[in-house]
Design a protein that fits this description.
The structure holds two protein chains of two kinds. Chain A is an alpha+beta fold. Chain A folds into two domains: 47 residues, Alpha-Beta Plaits, CATH 3.30.70.100; 78 residues, OB fold (Dihydrolipoamide Acetyltransferase, E2P) (Beta Barrel). Chain A is built from three helices and seven strands, in the order αββαβββαββ. Classes of the chains: A alpha+beta, B alpha+beta.
Chain lengths: 132, 35
């Protein structure tokens, strides 16, 4: 799986811990990494992803459907799952303020062996680390 | 002339840098069934 993920676009390093089932991915600075593609590559390598967390820096924007989103690249943004932390960031929409957040992009639904990997990933903010 | 070019360059860098710094910094997954 380490080699499989390491071949994905935008991936710099992959660290796998067999003991606790953790996989840490460090992206390259080229902005090409695609979490949805990583999730798919994980399934393709024969293991089940239970959870995916991401730390990212970006701007709060409103997408075409009127939902708040974190824009991490000019052409890549993640819709925010509403919670108290995301509400606190809504005032920053379309301002130049950059936020660094840690959040959950994916969690395997309880009782299902495999979730729909083609569903768009939504970001549930767990921690706002920085506003600048 | 050079001063003007430098000022323009500094302006462009200051405008472009916040967008350039937006990025995914780290991804962590918990997986099941790994051997």
């Amino acid at each position: 799986m380490k080699q499989h993920l390491g071949r994905q676009s935008g991936v710099q390093t992959v660290e796998v811990s067999l003991i606790d089932g953790k996989v840490e991915v460090t992206p390259k600075e080229d902005g090409q990494i695609d979490p949805a593609q990583l999730l798919k590559a994980t399934y393709d390598s024969g293991v089940t992803a239970a959870e995916m967390d991401m730390t990212a820096r970006g701007k709060i924007v409103k997408d075409s459907s009127g939902n708040f989103a974190l824009q991490v690249e000019p052409n890549r943004s993640f819709a925010l799952t509403p919670n108290e932390l995301s509400k606190g960031l809504e005032a920053l929409v379309d301002t130049p303020t950059m936020v660094t957040v840690r959040g959950q992009l994916y969690k395997k639904p309880a009782g299902k062996k495999k979730a729909d990997a083609s569903a768009p990933l939504k970001l549930l903010i767990l921690e706002v680390q920085k506003k600048e | 002339m050079n001063t003007k070019k430098l000022a323009l360059l500094a302006l462009l860098v200051s405008i472009a840098s916040p967008v350039a710094q937006a990025q995914i910094k780290h991804i962590e997954m918990r997986v099941e069934g790994m051997t």
